[in-house]
Structures are given as structure tokens and as C-alpha cells.
Amino acid sequence: QKEVEQNSGPLSVPEGAIASLNCTYSDRGSQSFFWYRQYSGKSPELIMFIYSNGDKEDGRFTAQLNKASQYVSLLIRDSQPSDSATYLCAVNSNAGKSTFGDGTTLTVKP
Amino acid sequence: EPEVTQTPSHQVTQMGQEVILRCVPISNHLYFYWYRQILGQKVEFLVSFYNNEISEKSEIFDDQFSVERPDGSNFTLKIRSTKLEDSAMYFCASTSGDQETQYFGPGTRLLVL
Predict the structure, then answer these.
(1) For residues B108 and B71, what is the distance between their CA atoms, to the nearest angstrom?
(2) What is the pLDDT along chain A (110 residues), one digit of tens a residue?
(3) Is B48 on the interface with A (CB under 8 A)?
(4) Which residue of B lies nearest to A39 if distances are taken between CA atoms?
(5) Does any CB of chain A come closer than 8 Å to the CB of residue B56?
(6) Is there a contact between B101 and A34 if contact means CB atoms under 8 Å apart?
């Protein structure tokens, strides 16, 4: 079983729709959870972080965490073509090391 | 806004050669990391560094790899004898706390021929 698993892509949504990205993790001791966006050839760029169960909203982005289910998700509302990228889920261990998922490639079609 | 910087942006080297990748973390950060990403694959943890010593390292980080913080600003990754499979993008990251957001540098693309 992968340590961090993301829903297989690619994911394609029309402009203005909601994009839903999912991630599960295996280490129950994980404490912090991050969503990054990565464009081809570039470094990961932080979108959101979440530490506590529940929802966290920031503009068009909402992160959801359910530690009992070991599940974290990212919703992107009113998707824009500029949101097209690969989205990386990362989970931090006690020592602060980030374990990344394979990423989900999102395409938003105009 | 402060940012992590890395040099060089690209490095081409011959197999068996030594390379040093350099990073300048954000100035008040205490935790430093190296990750790598082979083309088309996921970002992989290499090593974390805190209080002038390695705090954790992955299986990838074997005896060919070393890290150093030679002064108050630089954080380096050395690969002693490069292999073809070391070709990847190498990212440095830093953070103020081990559960805080890690800020990534722009990366060094290493190509081993």
C-alpha cells in the first residue's frame, strides 16, 4: 500500500465547475497535511494546509480532513483554465518529513 | 517576500563526477530538507536537517550523498559519484517548525550523462 495515495487522473472539468481531488494516507500518526500545485518543470507551490478535522476554506479552495478515515481532499470551486496543473497531496510525519502522493493532473477546459 | 533560492538552476555532469547543489533557505527557518523528483515521477524525500545534524534520511540517501550547512546561510547537497539514475530535479525546502509549511526552492535540474 502506498503511503499517500491520490485519485488517479487525469481529471478534466469544464470552466466554472467544481474540481474534487482526493488523497488517503496510511500513517495514523500524521499531523499535518498539505496541498501543492505543480506546473511542469516547476517546484511545488503551496495551496493550502490543514491540521484539524473538518473543513478549511481559502477563497475558491476548500480542504477537508478526516483523520478517522485517513482522508484529505481539496475542492476547487469555479475552476479556471489557470487552475490546470498537477496537484500534490503531502503528509507530514512527526519528524516533519513530507511524503507526497503521485499527484493528480487537472485540466480545466474553457 | 522571502524565498528559498537554489543554484545552479541546471547542472550537466558526467557519470562518476561529484556535484554540489546549493540552497539558501529562508533566513529565520530552522529545518531544512532536500527532495528529488525524477521526470514524470513523484516528489521523494531525501533528507531533513535540524540543529546542524541530519534528523531523518530516506533509503535513497545512501553513502554517496551528504549534506552540509557550511555557514549561516547555505545548505548544500553533495553527490560524490553521480550515477545516471541521479538525473532528476532536486528541491530544497525550509520551514520554521517541523509541522509548519515547507517552502520550496525553484529546484536544480541535474542531468548525469
Answers:
(1) 20
(2) 679 999 877 999 999 999 999 999 998 888 899 999 999 989 999 999 999 999 999 999 999 999 999 999 999 999 999 999 999 999 987 667 889 999 999 999 99
(3) yes
(4) B106
(5) yes
(6) yes
